[in-house]
Design brief:
The chain is mainly beta. About 5% of the residues lie in helices and about 40% in strands. It has a single domain, classed as Neuraminidase, CATH 2.120.10.30.
């Protein structure tokens, strides 16, 4: 295993973001065409039912992700999708989880690269104590991959059952969350530090559940420029089982201090956030809640820092199960270069095949004058083209959007999809997509 400070995935993301700035600035998308790149198949070899984890690109334009179930052993897979001439994509199963005693199983989260091309992630089950693992996948000659379990959760009062992905810091340490375990059994934030000889040491940075603290974090973490960590919890907070947004700040001597930035569930506020947060350029935080809001069907929210260290929350959109809008978003958001937000909803939309709730949507939120936002459903799934998107979205360099659905597709077990914007010229730059 080799490590460097900047991961391949991060460098690729920076390139994609920079090119997207150039490509999207002079166009306005009105419609989006969807294409299913792969339909997962419960055939004994392919994985199926991808969950929370978003896809990632490598520098060559291949996509990587995980499935919760399927594969040779039935406990999920890590897979690669590679574009081929003619516009199709070929799937390769890189690893089958559940092979042997102590192996991880059922990954719900996505993957990240290090600078050497190794992949890292978590499994929600398996390991020495059957409470999940942190794993590394290393490429070998001939196109194969070898898995190493870096850590097995569940050695009390350790964390247990990680369902979110990991992030690196600048020195090569890994950070993540667990939904359960810890001192109060309501989940943890943990750090993994590499040691000599390829080993890793785990440390619990914070245990949730000391009322009115948050509880049960399903979301991954993000850093700010100062090295503070930010995330969400599904439950807990000042208003009961409604969730929180939190910050962890490193202190002298190696400790960390937690601060609840916002407790959800007050009035028409959203409740039960399941997704990670993202920053904008001004330092505001954005994400979704899976429930709550005006119609109790979930929200998009913004958290803005105020003088004195506080944060103010604004609900940007309340989803509405009205037959056209999406509702119950499970995934987080991404920005495009013009400041628009994009995400998915678990149910809703105008597509058939999943009535009465709808098969889910891809949505766009556009900022308007005076601080408002307008929501537009870009695509409604119709089961045959995918259903129930739980994972988040990513852009490629041309402005196409990629994501996964947990169900639907040719075999009913989920899809990888691509959305291509159909752009009428607005500024008419000398750019062709």
């Amino acid at each position: 295993m080799r490590r460097k400070r900047l991961s391949i995935g991060l460098r690729a993301a920076l390139v994609i973001f920079t090119v997207t700035l150039l490509v999207t600035s002079g166009w306005a998308a009105t419609t989006w065409n969807e294409k299913v790149l792969h339909s997962f198949n419960n055939n004994g070899t392919d994985g199926y039912e991808p969950y929370f984890g978003s896809l990632i690109f490598d520098a060559a334009g291949n996509l990587y992700g995980t499935t919760y179930e399927g594969g040779i052993y039935g406990y999920g897979t890590a897979f690669e999708l590679s574009p081929v001439v003619g516009g199709s994509w070929t799937e390769t199963v890189l690893y089958n989880f559940g092979n042997g005693t102590g192996a991880g199983r059922n990954p719900r989260a996505g993957l990240i690269f290090d600078a050497a091309g190794n992949l890292y992630g978590t499994t929600s089950g398996g390991g020495t104590y059957d409470y999940g693992t942190v794993f590394e996948l290393t490429p070998t000659g001939g196109g194969g991959w070898t898995e190493q379990v870096l850590y097995s959760f569940g050695n009390t009062p350790d964390g247990a059952i990680p369902v979110a992905g990991l992030i690196f810091d600048a020195t090569g340490n890994l950070y993540g969350t667990t939904t359960e375990g810890g001192t109060y059994r309501y989940g943890t934030v943990f750090e993994m530090t590499p040691t000599g000889g390829g080993g890793w040491t785990e440390q619990v940075l914070y245990s949730f559940g000391n009322t009115p603290d948050g509880a049960f974090s399903n979301a991954g973490l993000i850093f700010d420029a100062a090295g503070n960590l930010y995330g969400t919890t599904e439950l807990g907070g000042a208003y009961g089982p409604s969730g929180t947004a939190f910050e962890l700040t490193p202190t002298a001597g190696g400790g960390w201090t937690e601060k609840v930035l916002h407790s959800f569930g007050n009035g028409t506020d959203g409740t039960r956030p399941l997704a990670s947060l993202i920053f904008d350029a001004a330092g505001d935080l954005y994400s979704t809640t899976s429930e709550g809001g005006t119609y109790r069907d979930g929200t998009v929210f913004e958290l803005t820092p105020t003088a004195g260290g506080g944060w103010t929350e604004t609900v940007l959109h309340s989803f509405n199960n009205n037959g056209t809008d999406g509702f119950l978003p499970n995934a987080g958001l991404i920005f495009d270069a013009t400041g628009k937000l994009y995400g998915t909803t678990y149910y809703g939309g105008a597509g058939g095949g999943c009535q009465p709730n709808g098969c889910g949507t891809v949505v766009e939120l556009t900022p308007t004058g005076g601080g408002g936002w307008t929501e537009q459903v870009l695509f409604s799934f119709n089961f045959t083209d995918g259903a129930i998107p739980v994972a988040g979205l990513i852009f490629d360099a041309t402005g196409k959007v990629y994501g996964m659905t947990t169900e639907g597709g040719t075999y009913g077990y989920g899809t990888v999809f691509e959305l291509t914007p159909i752009r009428p010229c607005v500024v008419c730059p000398n750019v062709r997509l």
